[in-house]
Amino acid sequence: MAAATTTYFEAGRSWNARVTERNTELLAQQALRRRGVRTPEFYFAKHFDNTRLVKASDPVRAREMRSFTAAVTMLFSLIMIYGLQHFSAIESSYRVESEKQIVEQLREENRQLRLSEAQLTQPARIDGMARQLGLAEPQPGQVIHQTAHPDANAPVLAQMAPVAPSM
């Protein structure tokens, strides 16, 4: 029966040819089932002309459909807003976590830099490097501090006097 019904949907054949073939197959099947007693079955194609039919508008049904559409639209909008906020919160938490990792890396790098600075500015290390370069400790009076007031009779290499503004 399934093989016979597929002939209705074959492309490229006319409707009448398919109906005739189907009727012939049914007639042959009935003859085999009834042992020679034949009761023919025929299918007739009916064509209906529905071009004159006009659908009457139902204002109650239209109002129900508008309210249903509005309700579904509101529900969809609320779900989308919730989803947007939810995924935004998840994204923010990932961003905060990555920023925390960056802060920890920067703190560790800062600690390493302070350790290396303390190691490089160690007075014993600087003194050893100076001696390797042939430098010696300064003699008394060789170092002049800017905050100290030098002797007025001592020679001065360079001196800058503030210039009074002229008007």
Q: What can be said about this structure in brief?
A:
The chain has 4 helices and no strands. The protein is mainly alpha-helical.
What does this structure look like?
The chain contains 4 helices and no strands. The protein is an all-alpha fold and 167 residues long. It folds into 2 domains: 1-54, no CATH class; 59-132. Mean pLDDT is 83; it is low at 1-8.
Rg, Å, rounded: 52 Å
- Give the CA-CA distance, first to last residue: 121 Å
Shape: elongated
Count of the domains = 2
Q: How much helical structure, as a percent, in the residues?
A: 55-70%
Mean pLDDT: 83
Structural class given helices, strands, pairing? Answer: mainly alpha
Order of helices and strands: HHHH
How many β-strands, per DSSP? 0
The total of helices stands at 4
Low-confidence stretches: 1-8
Task: Please outline the major beta sheet.
Answer: none
Strand content range:
under 5%
